[in-house]
Amino acid sequence: FDKRVDRARISRKKIERALPFIQLLGSIPFVRMIGMSGGVSMMNAGYADDIDFFISASAGRLWTTRICLLAGAEFFGLRRKRHSHRVKDMFCFNLFFEETDLTVPKEKQNPYIAHEIVQMKPIIVKNEAYSRFLVANQWVARFFPNSHRLNSVQNTALYGENVYSEQHTNRSNKYKRNTNYIGDVIEFLCKKVQLFVMERHRTNERITDTQLWFFPRDFEKKLKKKNVI
Length: 229
Description:
Elements lengths: L1 H25 L4 E7 H4 L9 E7 L4 H14 L15 E8 L12 H9 L1 E5 L3 H8 L11 H12 L21 H19 L6 E2 L3 E3 L5 H7 L4
Helix pairs in contact: 3-7
């Protein structure tokens, strides 16, 4: 019990220190949501732990968003670097979802990922990104049917504010890809540069046109090996 109380205190301090920088990074125009995940979001972080983040990016600006966030964290001295052993309070951007594709892939729909979604704390939210993310991942209710977050979003969608109209897909004309030529060129270059750098250090990354999963030490795989999930 004492350890749990101590970890909650440590987590609160980490959040307080991180908030000003998260707010600055959230001002990047392509960022739709910054959510805190992992041990800190569950108020169960150790003193030396880093801070994990989930990012939702605007349509067609996935790679531009990532490079902007990495550059911003680097500028503030908060970016967790590859193979670094001292990661206390460093920012680790684990997940990037483009707003046109907010649904977790079927092969990832398991209790572990569901738990991460339920526990995530949204810090920066634009254009109802968090509500749309939850509605796009209603499969989570199979594992956590009593989650107050999921239930509140479902009720909102049914009884009032049109949070997200499509029940079976999270693609919408409202969030179609940008067609700005200069922006598209920048996005293309950002993607090429980052993929080139990643190629030398590929581990467990999952990279698609609309989602990026970065987990060098994938805890989910450990659970699967032990038949936990």
